[in-house]
Amino acid sequence: MKAITMHLRPPAARLLAAGGALALATVLSSCGFNYATDRVYTPAEGTNDRSTDVDVLGAVIVSGQDGSGTFIATFSNNLQDKSSSVDSLEGAGDDTLEVDEFEPIELQPGDMVNLADEGGIVVRGDFGPGDFVHVLLTFGDGESIEMDVPATPPCDEYVGLDDSAEGSSEPYDCEIGEPVGEHAEH
Question: Which helix (H) or strand (E) covers residue 78, if one does?
């Protein structure tokens, strides 16, 4: 018995090869770009914003009690030939904040300022540890950003950073309590 073979004409072979290449390209492109590991990510409790010439990094409100806290962040001037400043901080959206008066935070070209070293900015409002506060920061060039900033207790790396020392409740207790519920020992 003799096998019958069929030879593809050159245009059909090219069409088949092009179709295979297209299918392969589709499959390979689904591997994707913009992996999470390729994006800037800082594993920290604070909020970051890099949308203006001044980066706001690790922004938190260290709050040892309900009603007050200290705004802490690092400001980094991305401009290498021009100074910048952080001129104001206020509540945004539905969040109303009383902000203690502060001098504009001057940033030399390419410089950064960490408010944890400078004492921070005391704020008061309807928040406490565990809440998020919607804030508006305005810079010397008129640009502004809104960001949701977590209110974190003054524990671990935040010990001693809450200068507000006022509020409507007892200071936050950083001690880890005994487990309760199903995780408690019987």
Answer: none
